[in-house]
Amino acid sequence: MKVWNQPNHLTGLSREVLEGAGPLAGLLRGDGLHPVYQPIACLKDGAIFAHETLIRGPQGTSLQSPAELFKAATLENLNFDLENVSAISAVDRWGEMRNPGRLFVNISAEVLVEVLTLHGSEALVELIKNLGVFPRMLVLEITEHERVADMDNLASTVEDVRRAGVSLALDDFGDGRSSLRLWSQLKPEFVKIDKYFTKDISQHAGKLKTIQALQQIAAIFDTDLIAEGIETPDDLRVLRDLGIPYGQGYLMGRPATDPLRQIEPEASSILRDRRVAVFPELNKISQLGHLRHMSVIEAPVAGVETSNDDLAQMLLSAPQLHAVAVVDAGRPVGLINRAQFLNEYSKLYFREVWGRKSCMMHANREPRLVERNHKIEELLGILTSDDQRYLSEGFIVTENGRYAGLGTGDQLVRSVTETRIEAARHANPLTFLPGNVPISQHIQRLLNSGAAFVACYADLNNFKPFNDQYGYWRGDEMIRLLARVILSHCDTQRDFVGHVGGDDFLILFQSIDWHMRCVRIVDSLAAGALELFDPQAREAGGIHTDDRHGVLRFFPCTTLSIGAVVADPGHFLKAEDVATGAAEAKHHAKKAGNGLFVLGASNSTWASAL
User: Fold this and answer.
1) 10 Å Cβ neighbour count for 503?
2) Are 255 and 32 in contact (CB under 8 A)?
3) Could you tell me where in the chain the CATH 3.20.20.450 domains are found?
4) DSSP bridge partners of 247
5) Alpha-carbon distance 505 to 562, whole Å?
6) CB burial class (10 A; 0-12, 13-18, 19+) of residue 390?
7) What are phi and psi of 428, to 5 degrees?
8) pLDDT digits (tens, 9 = 90+) for 225-247
9) How many CB atoms lie within 10 A of CB 35?
10) Which residues of 324-343 are buried (b: 16+ CB within 10 A; e: fewer)?
């Protein structure tokens, strides 16, 4: 390889390589390594943005893979030489091929600091130019950054290289303890997200939330994110729709000796497809709401030496107080109920005998203490406890064990109710399906994509009589049955299923065979619902029960109505309009009595699926 003949001290082989007897030393001396290049694509249009260079040993040998090469480098103490040779040979060949686009070259933080410390940035930039590559087209991809002992030194060391036009990238972000600090200090142009977070992101809401958090950090530091390890179409769709700028993985192109000019056809087809991905949702309602968000009474306190007379004055001057906490050195030690204390204090001769005594004689010495960061859902025990004293007397709120204020039962009931309502807007508590907020967000994503879709509103027929006849438990089973039936006939990567509330569901279809799926949902629900009726009702085809006006009537067994509206591009502007159209279609379906009703069928391919 011509590079070794160039008069640049960065390219010389070390004594360990020249005199080494190991297999890797022999490969380094004999030009036995070769670079391969893997594409990095723009996830917006599929164009190849750059290539990452990787090193390979002789094909068919034990040192072919990079893992074995670096294992051998550690055994032969040739890590620096392997990285040095790998980087220079890759840049050298890239310059020979005169390929367009940027080149990402892996180099460990330790080796980069050593090179720049020993030889300076000018020698490195000179070498890059001599190899036929413009510095602005080179990106040094810093690996093993979790080993960096002196981040300040690394940040200052690479600044000269950056001023010469060379860009920086952090590799495998999220796989090292010091990554975030290094991101903040280096402010690299690119950060590559570790494949742990991208693998199966289409199925894991937690990974999606993590990457959304990384996007916020990237916006702060003006950094472009690159998703590594993309191997499935579903993951690629999610990453594209999240707005990740660039991606890399086997789905788009494997490492090759000759750089690819285009990404693989399957990946290109996915990126051109305007249908949006269905983001994974948390499959359980998060425990929303902490006591910190609940109104806490910042009431005056009594001390262990406070007299009954002083406590009486305190209560009489604050008629809104239901109780007073007794605090010793900031730590609550008791709670005195207002009504009980004043009842005792008003008795004959009480003031003369007990007025100057400590108020602790009236205190509950084991009050309910609740830390301020406690989840409200966890406090339901207070409401359901056999000891209802806490509802009238309330409880003491602490922060890190110190007195913070008082809480009351009615405040707790109100806060739990509000947080449950808010939680239900995000995920229905019965089916755990997305609620109104995610439904609206997904509709807006569909509208923004410019792709056609179908919005279907599903509602049970004769559900209220069934619920009245058999009770809420079996009614909940019917709703859960409907959720299972809908999900079983939908493509979870294409079709979004939301639970509006009660027995109302909204399905946002991107599957072209949506009409057939709806018919199957209607038929499957009718068959499954029969199993929830008693044998006599199944034989009779329904039940006799009172209607809304108290009149005894016969109601057929529960079935399903679905109203559908085809949302062609430009037909709707807002999520609210889509929901209104689907609700109108459902109204027509309910009037028809059963089955599927399509409102305003158009001439699009979606309507032709009828």
Assistant:
1) 21
2) no
3) 2-271
4) 41, 227
5) 9
6) buried
7) -70, 130
8) 999 999 999 999 999 999 999 99
9) 22
10) bbbbeeeebbbbbbbeebee
| Helices 205-221 & 179-186 angle (0-180, nearest 10) | 30
Predicted confidence at residue 298, as pLDDT, reads: 84
Mean model confidence pLDDT for the chain:
86
Residue 5 pLDDT: 36
Q: Which of 6-10, 326-330, 597-601 bottoms out in mean pLDDT, i.e. has the lowest?
A: 6-10
Burial of 386 (0-12, 13-18, 19+ CB in 10 A): exposed
What tokens does 285 get? 């309602």
User: Span 291-417: which CATH code?
Assistant: 3.10.580.10
Tell me the residue type at 503: D
Q: Quote the tokens at residue 307.
A: 């007299």
More confidently predicted of 179 and 523? 523
pLDDT tens digits along 533-542: 999 999 999 9
- What number does CATH give the domain 431-608? 3.30.70.270
Distance of alpha carbon 212 from alpha carbon 568, whole angstroms: 29
CATH 3.10.580.10, the chain: domain bounds: 291-417
Confidence of residue 481 (pLDDT cuts 50, 70, 90): very high
Mean pLDDT of 537-561: 91
For residue 574, give the nearest of 447, 425, 450, 435 by alpha carbon: 447
Taking a C-beta distance cutoff of 8 angstroms, is the pair 127, 135 a contact? no
* Element housing 439 (H / E): helix 436-449
The fold of 2-271 is TIM Barrel (3.20.20)
Locate CATH 3.30.70.270 in the chain: 431-608
Q: Which of 429, 433, 409, 408 is nearest to 419 (CA)?
A: 429
- pLDDT, tens digit (0-9, with 9 covering 90-100), for 586-607: 999 998 876 899 987 555 555 5
Q: What pLDDT score was predicted for residue 195?
A: 93
DSSP-derived pairing of the beta strands 246-247 and 34-42:
antiparallel
pLDDT tens-digit map of 429-453: 889 899 999 999 999 999 999 989 9
Cα(196)–Cα(200) distance, integer angstroms: 9
